[in-house]
Amino acid sequence: MTATSQPAPSQTVTPLPNATILGYPRIGRRRELKRAIESFWKGATDEAQLAETARELRAATRTRLVELGLPATGGAVPESFSFYDQVLDATIALGAIPHRFADAVGSSDLTATFALARGDKDHQPLEMTKWFDTNYHYSVPELDEQTPLAANSAALVSYLAEAKEQGIESRPVLVGPVTYALLAKASDAAGEGFAPLDRLDEIVAVYAQLLADLAAAGAAWVQLDEPALVSDSLSVPRAEILALVERTYATLGGASARPAILLTAPYGDSAAALSRLAALPIEAVQADLVRGSLPESELADGSLAAAFEGTQFVAGVVDGRNIWRTNLRAALATATRLQDAGIATVIGTSNSLQHVPHDVSDETKLDARLRSWLAFADQKVEQVAILAKGLSDAASVEAELAEVDAVLADRAAAPGVSTAAIRDRAAAVTAADRDRAPEEDRRDAQRALNIPELATTTIGSFPQTSEIRVARAAFARGEIDQAAYDGFLRAEIERVIRLQEEIGLDVLVHGEAERNDMVQYFAELLDGFAVTEHGWVQSYGTRATRPSILWGDVSRPAPMTVAWSVYAQSLTERPVKGMLTGPVTILAWSFVRDDLPLADTASQVALALRDEINDLVEAGIKIVQVDEPALRELLPLDADRQAAYLDWSVGAFRLATAGAASEVQIHTHLCYSEFGEIIDAVDGLDADVTSIEAARSRMDVVEPLGDHGYSRGIGPGVYDIHSPRVPSVAEQTELIQLAAARIPGEQLWVNPDCGLKTRGYEETVASLTNLVQAARAVRGA
User: Fold this and answer.
1) 78 and 170 in contact (C-beta within 8 Å)?
2) Whole-number Å distance between alpha carbons of 474 and 289
3) Three-state SS for 545?
């Protein structure tokens, strides 16, 4: 059944223009939203002032997108703003407030958003986890049989009205109902056997009301994002997800009062589903053609065009996940094939541009040659506009195509992109280079470290105070010299060591005061990387990172962490961990070159880290932590590619760590992972101790670890560092006891969920003091 045979929206459908994007960065070019929200949290500004800053940011975004080439009419400009998180926004729009927050959400959508996201002393916040295979975190919805559901379209309607005042017909954006239900978890109050999908029909009914509200407010188009369509990593098989989408959009598309619907399938390959999606009673379908493909046989025999009769196809040919300039000639060829086949084609991005920085022209300190190879969000919008123009008249954009051809050729030939010595070393790696001594031998050798059962430690970083940031900035500006800066850092390290001794932690860290970011620090010291000045990307809420740019072959010209680790260890008799970021995480949290297989690049980074570990050990460091919080994050959504990824990612970690002798204890840290899917890979890392996020999920990970028979050290987090609340001794004791019920005491470590960089010292000291007391209580029980 094609769209032309289905009920029409409540108004005459204006087709999408031939250029659009799925979303845009929302934190502000200079992180204005972050500062405004944090000022509100501190009580320095009120809700009205925060709302006004957000309104100004939304207006500036719409104006900028039109300036860059998106049409102001026809719904080409997406309304993708969020105060915190798009999934949390859907929770607010659905009125799906868990009962446990009934006394905490306040009187406005904004206070409800922050209550669910951050919690308070009496309410643990919603769990967070990664958004598909990205470094973005979302707040996991909690549903049970009694969770209220009622349409709340206030924010969506208000943003639409703001756009109209600017003379722009914008397109509201919402996480789609099927993806929302699949990402939700059953609340603790849910009955046995309940699954959030049990309430899908009710959720769809609320979406129908939201669409009716938007239609009444004058929305011509609405965008519903359904990335669940491309994932094999959810609780339901992909074939069943497609069937759920078909059922859902038959209902939504059949409604008489609604805007035109753009259904998107970003982040992966939807080729197998395209014809069935095109047959839905909706007006447009998007596919990611960067990480996905076209159904070639259906394109060749005309069946794809038949399915798309009456339906527009948004071809996601501009990469929304990386920062390299698009091969415009190749992208235009793909779009032209679709158009020539008789498919109404719109040029679009593969996904929302929330995953890339705002504007490469801001990066005046980057090497000019490297800068010419790059495209941030603004440049990607320009590329979309160029391709849309070329789709109508290819000759009119030949100059732009030729310019990009020259840039791509220059990039391929540039010094450092390919270095023979680095590639020869990686090619010479053997299986033996990835293997350590047997686990039993290592355990015996490490008894000399005299670490107690239920050992307490932290993940690595301590709060980055304003004093640290001021000193770092002063050093960068040349206002203090190297000696003065190093003296400041040594004093900070000593303060952190003494603090940990006073709290009573068993295994210490140096606090990482010298590190601006756990990836950027290493990127600044490794060859083959560059760093940005303003390349901020939202990670969650007000938390943003500046991903480094991995542009060439990677090597380590000199030791990176040895001096600081050795100094910290000299201050105490307790063991101090050497702290490194693992090869997979360095790749995951950087913008990585797209001209070399990830596995090859990972081996280069692993060899550089292997050299660093060897130097740490030679300098007397007995415990080295190699963090891999992104191991699960890069797991491909397509099941057919997962085994190959796990093979090379685990192999890269082992290549980095296998040079360490048996008496050296290797730690790693993982976070926000559905570990049941990758438990074999976690085991395969062969780390002596693994710490993991577990506090918000209340030790959900312990059961699969116990079932697997995991035999090495494990530290499920008992202190959620993503919230300012201080967990009590009783709360942390309960979590330790839950873990101890499945994990033997000699294996169990006690630690926070993650590093403490973003926290303040008052809450950190209180939380860690409670953590140590809880561990001692369980240890002595």
Assistant:
1) yes
2) 45
3) strand
756's tokens: 């403490």
pLDDT given at position 10: 55
Q: Name which of 686, 668, 688, 472 is nearest 581 in CA terms.
A: 668
C-alpha span between 334 and 663 (Å, rounded): 56
Q: Where do the DSSP E strands lie in 82-130?
A: 128-130
The answer to whether 541 touches 524, Cβ cutoff 8 Å, is: no
Question: Does the active-site annotation cover 669?
Answer: no
Q: Is 572 exposed, middle or buried (0-12, 13-18, 19+ CB in 10 A)?
A: middle
Q: Alpha-carbon distance 308 to 502, whole Å?
A: 68
- Segments in the chain below pLDDT 70: 1-11, 672-677
d(CA 410, CA 405): 9
Instruction: Decide the pairing of beta strands 543-545 and 537-540.
Output: antiparallel
| Cβ partners under 8 Å of residue 407, min gap 6 | 325, 372, 373
Tokens encoding 555: 């090597």
Q: For the purposes of burial, counting CB atoms within 10 Å of the CB of 776, is it exposed (0-12), middle (13-18) or buried (19 or more)?
A: middle
Task: Please tell me the predicted confidence (pLDDT) of residue 707.
Answer: 78
Contacts of 445 (CB under 8 A, 6+ apart): 437, 661, 662, 663
What residue has token string 């059944």? 1
The answer to whether 295 touches 272, Cβ cutoff 8 Å, is: yes
- Could you tell me the two tokens for 347? 């040029």
CA angle (371, 376, 377) in 5-degree steps = 160
CA neighbor of 154 nearest in space, from 97, 101, 201, 209:
209
**Token output for 730:** 């009783």
> How many CA within 13 A on the CB side of residue 57?
26
pLDDT value at position 8?
Answer: 54
CA distance 107 to 641: 47
Distance CA 96, CA 189 (A): 14
- Tell if the pTM clears 0.85, that is, is over it: yes
Residues in the chain: 781
Helix H or strand E encompassing 223: strand 221-225
